[in-house]
Write a structure and sequence with these properties.
Rossmann fold; 7 strands; binds nicotinamide-adenine-dinucleotide
């Protein structure tokens, strides 16, 4: 059965996290963006707002579309808020130990059917998936910077990533 993705969780509100949040929200997908400090979350949301303003200036977006997109982004510091997402994308600092810690925490918290993805640029997806209980529902989503301009994401399957996980992520908005 295919998973319909209507809410995406994002770990990290930095360059990639807020770019992914913007791309998802503009596509009409609800976003929960979590970082370690509220200041980082606020900065991420403000970056999205400024980026959408630039699109309005270029006549690529209306003010109403900007408001609609921002209304879809919920930011915070609690991983608990990610529980309603069908897909959680880890876009935290590129550090192997840190990512393993975050992924184990997510694995213990999220419903078994939730897909976890990592935006890592250099770490093996198979290695990141291994300590989780869901290597079949784990995938690499390598977004390109700046995300909203590139509109490109490379999917990287781990050794055990299932076809269903790959298809659910590929067909998401
Ligand atoms: N910047 C790029 O061009 C680019 C391109 C492709 C992939 N990536 C990858 O994307 C990921 C993020 O990169 P970035 O450039 O956005 O980094 P960044 O430094 O801009 O943002 C990382 C964010 O993660 C947050 N963070 C750290 N620990 C956390 C935790 N435990 N929980 C929640 N948030 C936490 C930090 O506070 C920071 O806001 C990395 O894996 C990087 O390799 C980056």
């Amino acid at each position: 059965m295919s998973t319909e993705i209507t809410t995406v969780g994002i770990i990290g509100a930095g360059t990639m996290g807020n770019g992914i949040a913007q791309a998802c929200a503009v596509a009409g997908v609800r976003v929960v963006m979590v970082d370690i400090a509220q200041a980082a979350v606020d900065k991420g949301v403000a970056t999205v707002g400024a980026s959408l303003d630039r699109l309005i200036k270029k006549d690529k977006l209306t003010a109403a579309q900007k408001e609609a997109a921002l209304a879809l982004i919920q930011g915070g510091t609690s991983y608990d808020d990610l529980k309603g997402a069908q897909l959680v994308i880890e876009a935290a600092t590129e550090n192997h130990e840190l990512k393993l810690r975050i992924l184990k925490q997510l694995d213990g918290l999220l419903a078994p059917e939730t897909i976890i993805a990592s935006n890592t640029s250099s770490i093996s997806i198979t290695q990141l998936a291994a300590p989780t209980s869901r290597p079949d529902r784990f995938i690499g989503m390598h977004f390109f910077n700046p995300v909203p301009m590139m509109a490109l994401v490379e999917l990287i399957r781990g050794y055990l990533t299932s076809d269903a996980t790959h298809d659910a992520v590929r067909s998401s908005p």
